[in-house]
Amino acid sequence: MSLNVTFRQLRVFESVAHHSSFTRAAEELHLTQPAVSMQIKQLEESLGLALFDHLGKKIFLTDAGSEFFKTSRSISRQLSEAEEFIEEIKGIHQGHLNIVVASTANSFATNLLATFIQRHPEITFSLDVTNRQRLLESLSANEPDLVIMGQPPEKLDVVAEAFMENPLVIVVGKNHSLFRKEISFTPEKIQKERFVVREQGSGTRTAMERFFEERGLQLETRMEFGSNEAIKQAVQAGLGLAMVSIHTIQLELEAKVLRVLEVKDLPIQRQWHLVYRKGKRLSPVAESFRQFVLDEGSSLVSEVR
Ligand code: PGA
């Protein structure tokens, strides 16, 4: 049997069935009432069945009409899912992605974005690299699509999804006396050394301070630098030791200008998180980037190392 039913007829039928009224369906669909009656008549002829009983001024679905109503609704649902899916594909190809990352995450975020953009060359993006304070401000204003950060904020209502480990280690530069000594340290022994540290508000710095405080220790000498680049320069120049994320020092380790010191209880095992405000409706591009980072982020970053 081949049915000659149109989507337009289904839509009119659903509206009439829903309202139990030709008049109300006509209003809803911005049609005249005879146009609605005509669509239903044609549909009934195609099916070879009456869909409505007319009792006085009222109309009721027949048994066949009730069954057909279920089928029709299921077709409409599938159609609207297909529409959403098509919009989503269009969206991914044309959208804009607004990402904010903690400064340490910049060491791998650019590589992740580059791979994502290769797959979706039409999308545009902005990447803001900033400290934790500014990052929390923009999260609280719900500005970015997604944030990549270490410790998710406790005071904001956010969704935070861990996607990769972020080990923190202590490094020494080639101009430092400890560079060539194969010694294992305890936290007590290493805290006597001179350290260069990140600025207040840095997630790395907070984790480092917590590590020593938990052991009743406090670092003595402090020289403060506002970025990982500056920290690495200072350590290479022999100004002191530093605690950094392993993700920031791959090139320096390969070039053998920095070395990771062996210290008991290190590395500190932290996680990188994808974060966004709870209840935020992610755009198709943002949702696709989120999936990409969760599924492939960790393995792509290890390859870059
Ligand atoms: P950073 O890193 O703030 O030290 O750059 C982010 C984090 O580790 O939380």
Automatic annotation (TrEMBL):
The keyword Flavoprotein does not apply. InterPro entries: LysR_HTH_N (IPR000847), LysR_subst-bd (IPR005119), WH-like_DNA-bd_sf (IPR036388), WH_DNA-bd_sf (IPR036390). The keyword DNA-binding applies. It comes from the Bacteria. Keywords: DNA-binding, Transcription, Transcription regulation. Residues 5-62 form the HTH lysR-type domain. GO terms for molecular function: DNA-binding transcription factor activity; transcription cis-regulatory region binding. Belongs to the LysR transcriptional regulatory family. This is LysR family transcriptional regulator.
